[in-house]
């Protein structure tokens, strides 16, 4: 009995020391991230591949001069990117032909690809001109969150949509998000003061998140048991870190008004797996209305997220929670 009690004490002390060490490491990492200037802050140089002349780089703080910007992060997407871009630009051109007031741009952010992604992207710039398609080169791989942040900060749209390079979601589904944003904006104007009625859609902070939650039952039936277990565990951790309200934080199809993007993407810090969760947290912090909308979605081979990503996701969620809740990560208004 005495041996068992001694063993229990040893395990308790070991667990306490381990937990203390883990918390210390997270706090240290959050503190270091406070002074981490590894975001790619240098403005991109947009070059017209047809004339070889540099193009003025916009910033999210500038007024919008396009109706919508589509930001596509791309890392080693040489094979999947062409099909997604063809579908996207065909839709945009058709809509532009029907509605002359509809203006657009596609911003492809090459996240340090080692294949022919850059060549593919510039081929589309040549075909559709730098006025409609632009390429941001990050130089080395920083992560999907950083690629989207960079694209958002240098886009020109009143509305800004992030979407994946694999084309898993139909680009036409952006109309679902767009319509809901306009509906919420109308309500905001009606419930606000008289000056709010003069605001453009770009001036009202609103976010719309595409969701695959309606497909969850089918996904649960087809996935391996351990993937479902890990998914449920991840959802629980997300709930603890960012709070309730959004069923699917990880769908890569999200739309923001320019006012919302200004607040969110000048503050976001996570650069890889869990930046979506940080966006949810920041939306709540800034009281930005978030609408979750079901979108069509299909599994595309070649996903870069695997089981080994889980520990990194958990680490980033812990880092985010400690960073914001201790005040180490400051918010810019």
Structural notes for this entry:
It is globular and about 50 Å long. The strands form 2 sheets. It has a 7-stranded mixed sheet, with helices on both faces. The protein has a two-stranded antiparallel sheet with strand order 1-2. The chain has one domain (46-325): Spore Coat Polysaccharide Biosynthesis Protein SpsA, Chain A. Strand 1 and strand 2 form a beta hairpin. The termini are far apart. It is built from 10 helices and 9 strands. The model is unreliable at 2-37 (pLDDT under 50). It has helices at residues 2-34, 81-98, 117-128, 144-153, 174-191, 216-222, 225-242, 258-265, 275-285, 309-325; strands spanning 46-47, 54-55, 66-74, 104-110, 133-137, 157-162, 207-211, 254-257, 290-294. The protein is of the alpha/beta class. It is a single-pass membrane protein. This is dolichyl-phosphate beta-glucosyltransferase. Its main location: endoplasmic reticulum. It catalyses: a di-trans,poly-cis-dolichyl phosphate + UDP-alpha-D-glucose = a di-trans,poly-cis-dolichyl beta-D-glucosyl phosphate + UDP.
What layout of secondary structure does this protein have?
Blueprint: H1 2-34, E1 46-47, E2 54-55, E3 66-74, H2 81-98, E4 104-110, H3 117-128, E5 133-137, H4 144-153, E6 157-162, H5 174-191, E7 207-211, H6 216-222, H7 225-242, E8 254-257, H8 258-265, H9 275-285, E9 290-294, H10 309-325
Helix pairs in contact: 1-10, 7-10
Question: Which features characterize this protein?
Answer:
single chain; 333 residues; alpha/beta; Spore Coat Polysaccharide Biosynthesis Protein SpsA, Chain A; seven-stranded mixed beta sheet; two-stranded antiparallel sheet; 9 strands; globular; disordered N terminus; transmembrane
